[in-house]
Amino acid sequence: MKITVRYFASVREQLNQSHELVETSAIDLNGLREELVARGEPYAQALGLGKAIRMALNQQVSDGEVALLPDAEVAFFPPVTGG
Amino acid sequence: MGFTVHIQTEDFDLSHEVAMLRAGQPAVGAVCSFVGTVRDRNEGDAVSSLELEHYPGMTEKAIQGMMTQAAERFDVLGARVIHRVGLMQPLDQIVLVVVTSAHRGQSFQACEFLMDYLKTQAPFWKKEATPSGYRWVDARVSDDKALARWGIELSNASGNQ
């Protein structure tokens, strides 16, 4: 399935892009993250396990076990620092 | 004026926003507001400017959801949140939360609740300019603890995922 992946803040800078269309067979957000990390650098550095990365599915903060759906909008970003 | 959220690059005027929230609302007996501003120091370093990034769409939804929760928990009549994005300098205003209620206790509490929530769960990111270059501001565990006081255990700064 095709999904849109968006990146913010330090993750966006490390990947040098704010969004991309991704063809994925991952069943959930963790699976998608693993697929991206498996691409190698700069993904491995930006999204690797052990990095404090927050995820959103269709603009809702989600944990890694949430199932992916076709045309989903997924986002990866660091902990937030507004206010 | 209900419960509204605005994300904008422009500055805001506290008096104007309070007037908008109070207009035609004679049940209001208390107005509580918080304004966050850009400091010239952070983590011991001078800060010359601050750039705020956000996730358009998600930010508004997240804050609207926080206001819905505030309205369920507290006896409030209205709320207004304004958060600026883009480039700012020390002394600039960044964020405004205004809450109205019949009596002061509920608006005091709801205002603090909304700020604690927004700090750790609204998708904004700060990047600051210091003498040694640009750096992304780190999230604080103390902000997670502030939200936990309200019985909401959500990690932002705490824990890797």
Major β-sheet annotation of chain A: 5 strands, mixed
Question: What's the Cα radius of gyration of chain B?
Answer: 16 Å
Tell me the number of strands of chain B: 10
CATH homology-level superfamily of chain B: Molybdopterin biosynthesis MoaE subunit
β-sheet strand percentage of chain A = 25-35%
Number of continuous helical runs of chain A: 3
What do the pLDDT scores of chain A average to? 96
Query: What is the correct CATH architecture of chain B?
Result: Alpha-Beta Complex
CATH architecture title of chain A: Roll
Q: State the helical fraction of chain B.
A: 25-40%
Please tally the helical runs of chain B, counting DSSP H or I stretches of 4 or more residues. 4
- CATH class label of chain B: Alpha Beta
Which residues of chain B sit in consecutive blocks of at least 5 with pLDDT less than 50? none
Find the CATH superfamily of chain A.
Beta-grasp domain
Number of domains of chain B: 1
Oligomer: heterodimer
Strand and helix order of chain B: EHEEEEHEEEHEEH
Order of helix and strand elements from N to C terminus of chain A: EHEHHEEE
Biggest interface: chains and residue counts?
A: A-B, 25 and 33 residues
Structural class computed from helices and strand pairing of chain B:
alpha+beta
First-to-last CA distance of chain A: 37 Å
